[in-house]
Amino acid sequence: MTTFVREAGPRRNPGSRDHRVELVLEDLRIRARIADENASDTEIEKIARADLAALGEKKSEQVGQEIERLTVLTRLPKRRDTLRAVEMAGMLRLPQIIELNEQLQLRPGSGRKADRWPAIAMLWALAGGLHERPCISTAHEAMLGDPLLGFALGYPRQRPLSSLYELIGSMCAYHDPWLAMSANIAIAKTLAARHASAGGYPMGKVLMVDGTFVQGHFQQRMARSERERELMYSDAAPNAAFARYTNAKGDTLVKCSGYKWVSLIDPRAMIPLVGRLVPASADERGACTLLLEDLFELWPDHPVEYLVGDSYFDHSKRFNRSLESCWSIHPVFPSHGASKSDSPYADTDGVPHCDCKLPMSRHSHDGFPTLAARQREGLRRGEPMDLEEARVRYDCPNGLHKSVTVRPRENACLYTLLPREATSDNGTFHAMRVAMLLKRNRIESFFASLKHLGLGGKDQQRFRSKAEDTLEWILAIGCLSITARTLLHDSGRYPGAVQILDDLGLLRVATPDAPAIGPTPDRALRGDQMLRDLLAAQGDHDDLARAA
């Protein structure tokens, strides 16, 4: 069992907020007195407070501008305003997903096709949010006699339920979920190309990482012995584990017997990029390193520069240093403080204060292993670069004291490119950090979307199978369906799909006078080809409407 303790880190900023405001006011009074030696004390106080208000407005405006640069590029309709079966019909006919489904039908080793379409259709029905929770028997029953769902899923051949269980299990065991992540990246590249000219941060420059518990189909308690663990988890779940989070008093906050799903998401497109199913007791920092390896293998020139996560990622100096040195990624995590107390300027979050009792002005930075430096040296992401010369320089805001230089190689958690405390300069870099952390809840929105699809549910809503391979495939397909749905609506293809299915009579309500719903076989084939042509078309909304 692994126990994670959640506790607030020590306060690092000296004094109360009122005390820090008074220090800034005193500095502004001095500056006002230098500017006008003949002004009265009342006038000096008035000028200083006006300057303080202007300073606060400026910093708020800077944070607002940075938040604007993080605005979500893709706007999706609410799920209650769309037809999920129509979305499924569109997603399964995207070129990237057609290629994935063809790979799943190949027999490993032989290269010959097998009749695995019933299992593939079932996977998509389970992971695509067509039902409240992923239950094979419920999805199998729902597909019987439903013309719209049958067309959306490609009319899978009906098989006995026991045979379907075996087919799904063998297919998921044979094929690596890496295939789904590869298709997901292909769709993400299409979205990035569509929004290449958008303002703000380019899509991919900022990524977010986090994990969420996924209960396995076991008793949600800790096994008391190794034998009991074997009986509880079985051979189908070799990586399942038990973990819990507690507070500083030892009270259990949350517990899970099963797994974590750890993901990297793009907050501007609100889509996942890569994800992994790891034991519930796994270290999310180690999982994050594996995800970065996956990402750059699938997308070698991905432009990420900043990684945003929760304070757990701030616990390790080694992890933060590796982000800078091996991946050329700047960590942006809330401060925890556990790994900083023995370093200079730890009480001011890594921002030096001079004898003026004020945060020093951030002057410049250099020596960081940037992406441009990697390209010059011919190094791929993941290969370590020298961090010895990386530094951030600070100057006295009043020009009275010596400059101070901090180096990430000494403590990469504390001495970050984006300062944790507002400095006395224009504050742009601090505003970037504040804006990114304010939008950190977008990854929680992604996990909520997964749960809305019926994935990652608790207790009675969890996936009722101990097969670890199947669970990982369902979660991978769930992530892929979120990205595919985003492309379907962002490109304006959904209305065209609705029109095609409506022309086929699949959206008509059955009546006593016309009880039969659905097209003839010939019309179904033509409709399928029209939908494929629509979704293969490239261009803006008007081009796609003409293709429909």
Strands, helices and their partners?
Blueprint: E1 2-6, H1 17-35, H2 41-69, H3 84-91, H4 95-104, H5 117-127, H6 136-143, H7 147-152, H8 161-174, H9 178-194, E2 206-215, H10 226-233, E3 241-247, E4 252-266, E5 271-279, H11 284-298, E6 306-308, H12 317-327, E7 330-332, E8 361-366, H13 371-377, E9 391-395, E10 404-406, H14 428-438, H15 442-452, H16 468-490, H17 494-503, H18 521-536, H19 541-547
Parallel strand pairs: 1-3, 2-6, 6-7
Antiparallel strand pairs: 2-4, 3-4, 4-5, 8-9, 9-10
Features:
548 residues, alpha/beta, 3-stranded antiparallel beta sheet, 10 strands, elongated, disordered C terminus
- C-alpha end-to-end distance: 55 Å
What Rg is obtained from the alpha carbons, in whole angstroms?
28 Å
Low-confidence stretches: 8-16, 538-548
Strand content: 5-15%
Describe the overall structure.
There is one protein chain. The protein is α/β, with parallel strands linked by helices and 548 residues long. Among the domains are: 15-69 and 336-439, no CATH class; 79-182 and 454-547, no CATH class. The chain has helices at 17-35, 41-69, 84-91, 95-104, 117-127, 136-143, 147-152, 161-174, 178-194, 226-233, 284-298, 317-327, 371-377, 428-438, 442-452, 468-490, 494-503, 521-536, 541-547; strands at 2-6, 206-215, 241-247, 252-266, 271-279, 306-308, 330-332, 361-366, 391-395, 404-406. Strands 1, 2, 3, 4, 5, 6 and 7 form a seven-stranded mixed β-sheet that branches. A three-stranded antiparallel β-sheet has the order 8-9-10, with no helix packed on it. α12 links the parallel β6 and β7 (330-332). The longest helix has 29 residues, at 41-69.
